[in-house]
Amino acid sequence: MKVIAAAKKATLVVGLLTLGGANAWNEGGGEQDDALTLTPDRERGIAVYEVCSACHLLEGWGQKDGTFPQLAGQHRRVLVKQLADIRAGNRDNPTMYPFALDDQIAAAAGYHEGEINPAQLVADVTAYMAQLPMNPDNGKGPWNALFPEFEQGKKLYEANCVECHGENGEGSDEKFYPKIQGQHYEYMLRQFEWIRDGKRRNANPDMVKQIEGFSDKDMQMVINYTSRLKVPKEDLAPSVDYQNPDYD
Ligand code: HEC
Ligand code: HEC
Hints:
50% of the residues lie in helices and 0% in strands. The chain is mostly helical. The site of one heme C (HEC) has 26 residues, from helix 7, helix 8, helix 9, helix 10 and helix 11.
């Protein structure tokens, strides 16, 4: 009896540990869950986003050199998770962190800290960013379709990425998989390397495993291909000269 009880206990402990490991990514809870259940307000989203636009630009297009990612058109749930992770210190972003704190986002919306639930502001600003039209001219990698590196990158993409990010880099809102079509090459290269090397602490462990054998050249080739995936026309702004009309 005693032996069986001990064995049972051990199984339970192992079971719990495994469960903990499997759930360590995207545990949700707290602000992320709150933000996803609150009803977003567009006007407040516009007001909060003005703070963010200092780096991500009024159009949400980021920069080709990869310093700032494009946020326009990203899946709402991805934006909520990433923003909540950055605010909670689960993803390092020392440049942005001070601007994403409660007092800053509250002030942007015209409140004092404590007068409004910060999760509400996260809900507002992410809903706003997700519906912005995307940059028609994102930063691309060095190899167009005439180069063997393009083909090599395509093969790597099809074998290792489609399962999560989709045939065309469309990702999945439901599963919190980022849209990577239309994102800047230099930004993606940095993130990919950080994910591979364990520096992006909130990264999906299955992606880390999938890409652990990638050399730097593999990484450049697969991201080159990713940066050249086509964004559906209806998600793009009409031209590179487009200006966000909400900030006239
Ligand atoms: C001072 C510049 C700066 C400001 C202001 C700023 N950000 Fe950022 N943001 C960054 C940088 C830099 C990154 C990319 C960090 C990295 O390379 O990991 C980033 C990344 C992000 C990401 C992750 C995108 C992804 O693809 O995973 C989100 C979401 C985001 N910012 C939202 C916001 C919001 C919302 C605000 C306003 C409340 C804001 N940012 C204000 C600099 C800024
Ligand atoms: C098991 C699913 C999975 C696989 C396979 C996978 N990814 Fe990811 N990827 C993710 C998730 C989830 C994230 C967001 C991580 C997080 O939660 O912070 C991500 C993040 C990224 C990012 C950063 C996006 C951003 O906006 O910051 C890039 C770039 C990327 N993946 C490219 C790739 C490429 C290229 C491959 C194939 C070589 C690949 N991924 C394979 C799930 C996956």
